[in-house]
Amino acid sequence: MKKIPSLAVLAVFAALAACRRKPEPAPETPEVAFAPPPGRRAFALSIDKSQTRFLSPGDAVEIDVLVATPRADGTSVSRTETLAARAEILRVEDDWSDDNGLIQLALSPLEAQYAALAVQREDRIFLNKLAERPALTPLPDPPKAELAPGMRGFSALVEPDQEEFLDPGDRVDVIVAARGGKAGGKSEAQAATLLQDALVLESEPAQGHEEWATVQLMLTPEQAAQLARALAAEDDLTLAARAPGDRTAMPVEPAKMSRKFGTAAERGSPRS
Asked: The pTM is what?
């Protein structure tokens, strides 16, 4: 029998081993994340993929919302209004779910309330890309989060998109969207900043088939009672992250769509 040269045998085994060898996974692309500019809030928005597909962190967009105005005959007419003339894009996840992407936008505290209200009302939102590229700062690592004496660690269930971009050590404003107020004799939803500058102690995404994520905030006993009442009323919660080092608290007027996009009489109504 003719012998196969030993070098040829080695070559055959090497070829077989190469065929069986699993391909090395492609290196993960580091997530690009920017910090909100001072005085602005990072607002996480789950939105259909058509609105996130061609956007990247560092872009700027105009935010438009489709507003429906009721008529006297019981019908309504829709029109597009500008919710924010310019918002900086801080993060993007194109494949947040089968149908939606997840985007984080830098908004003013008042704009963040209107965005939370639009989400609660299920208004359709459009993100129109602008030509400019704003100057943004990369997001630094958050400081260590520890529960201070006299404070409370309050845990709350939130929509998964409100937890996704949060880390322990971040500071957030808590916006609540609830039914309330009157517009033309009809009940109208409103959004208000319930708490400001709350420290995130822990955050955990939804597990398996769970519907909710969990976030633990450091609050005073009075703030914990306020948030407990909002949860009992089933108000929608939005956690808007603050710029690093921004600890300033300021009054923010509650948001009602009639005040921003309503008739002249509605826009001039008392701020109740």
From this structure: 0.83
